[in-house]
Amino acid sequence: MKMLKYFYTVCLISLIFSLQSVAQNTKILVRPGERCFSKEQYKNAYPYFEQVLKTDPDNLNALYKSGVCNLHRFSKEQALINLEKVYAKDSTYNKYLYFWLGRAYHLNYDFEKAFIFYNKFQQKISKNNIQYKEVERYKYQLTCGADYISNPSNYKVQNVGAAINSSYSEHSPVLSQNDTLLLFTSRRANVIDTKEEYDGEPFENIFYSHKLDSVTWSAPESFQLNTSGHDASIQLYDNDTKLFIYSYLHGGDIYTTENKNGTWSTPVSLEEINSIDFEADVFLTADGKTLYYASNHFKKNGDLDIYYLTKNTDGTWSKPQALSSTINTDEDEDAPYISADGRTMYFSSRGHTSMGGYDIFKSTLDTATGAWSKPVNLGYPVNTPDEDLYFILSHTSEKGYLSSYRTGGYGEKDIYEVIAIEDAVIKGQLVDKNNSPVKRDGLIVQIIPLETASKNAKSTQATVLNDGTFDVSALSDNNYSVFVLDGRDTIARDTLHIALIGEKNRAVKYNCVIPDKQVNESTAPVTADTTVTTPVAAQKIQQTFYFAVNISTVGPSTKAELRELVSILEKNPNATISISGHADGSGPESVNTTLAQKRAANVKEYLESKGILASRIKVASYGSTKPVATNDTEAGRSKNRRVEIVVE
Length: 648
Description:
Layout lengths: L1 H37 L3 H14 L4 H14 L2 H14 L5 H13 L3 H13 L6 H21 L4 E5 L10 E6 L5 E6 L18 E6 L10 E2 L8 E7 L4 E6 L5 E8 L2 E2 L3 E2 L9 E6 L5 E6 L9 E6 L10 E2 L10 E6 L5 E6 L9 E8 L4 E2 L3 E2 L10 E6 L6 E5 L9 E7 L2 E9 L11 E7 L10 E4 L5 E7 L2 E9 L2 E10 L8 E7 L27 E6 L9 H16 L5 E5 L7 H21 L7 E5 L12 H7 L1 E6 L1
Parallel strand pairs: 23-29, 31-32
Antiparallel strand pairs: 1-22, 2-3, 3-4, 4-5, 6-7, 7-8, 8-9, 8-10, 11-12, 12-13, 13-14, 15-16, 16-17, 17-18, 17-19, 20-21, 21-22, 23-26, 24-25, 24-27, 27-28, 30-33, 31-33
């Protein structure tokens, strides 16, 4: 018995010493991480906290600070995971936990939870605290963001790839006139100078790359004028012979350099706009007569505004003038870009109706008055809750380019292509199995989006002419079902894929084969405004509505379509409504089921508010168990976040 007690005592002492040793090692390991964290050197701080978590995965301090580091630099998703762990273990860990959770939910598109935690943080601080006003701004951004995501714009945003982008920040793309030379700014390590900025990241440098084919860029090379400080690319002009660059001298100034026989000259300060303060960006219009730039020189609160100068008849420049409050706000406005015709301005702003960080806005010039129109947000998916800026247009195509910090990138900000998704003009013809035209009066062709199509793809129809031809428009980059109707009979069905089209009014040829043995199925005509995805019986209607990540509220576009459905239901008082809620597969199934239930319940509640009896409505939640697309991509997940309605 004594030996047993002795054994337990030895084990206990060993355990105590072991725990003390681990605690000591943790303290030693975390000290440099704490120093870097306090200086907001998140890249350098992160590895220390991650090392602690390998041996002590429940260490709240390491979880909290690793979460903040991830949020700024590495992974927004992991940031949320870590911060949620802290909250689950100690919901009162500190008041800033609420702030960072609000930011993490915001940047991960969970706007409902972000709002909750922003409120929790505000309850812990004074209304006079500067962060209180900051959080109010974030809460307004949540409202804007939810609306943009519920009503996505017709753009496709795709990463330009690993040849250009790295785990560091890439931004400020600049294209030559033929789009074969790309200059950009990166914080990747430069073999010429490996010194780091105060935040622990390498200094910004300019790199350039040549286009090898339609999709491939050469390995980037360091630009010859890089200095030991920050350098950034801004604009090639005067037939690509001159270049505006940014250099962090005297608080940040703009310089110009000229290419002479393949060598760039010593940069010259643009004295007309440079000051002792921060000049961030500049753009010269195509006619060379107006110079726009961003500076904080004239603002008491230090935010950036956009100013302009015009060229006098003697070649000198006028005094700077600020754009009106239509463009400039009390937040930052930066990176002006003017279209070749001088009538459209794209710029980045943290104000206006931003959904978070910088967003890209568009304004048009009234040539009669010289006034710029109220800026329009380019919407989601061009803009995100994080930083989206430095938008430019291609010189040879309909593409745009921007810099953005978004999920799925290679690191911090990456450079992306922006391609408008345009309608295709389908030049169709009905043919038989021998490819001969089918000529018959009174036929109708319906084009109906498949369930995996984007939300903006709509159903439409066209009358077939006597020679078997028909014209109809449909949103490109989508898949459709095609039905040929003879009265109420379906005589043919097909599927149609329309590849991405970035130019307006491009024609697409399509032949629809009418089989010898024709289908004979009753079907109801489909109006262009519905989202019916399959042909259904005359008394049956199917509609699908889509939701943003973790959003269950009924958005304005959904309400508009539901109002049309209410009109139909009022005319058919015996019709019953089945509502099924669905979620994507990105979270625990218990959460997905609840979220899907909320979506369906909110649609039901809206119908009831318009006078539809609850006894006519059945509601079901399927969570993520019935996907219509892959959950491996954001495009697929966006199709699975839905509510389906069937009216019979």
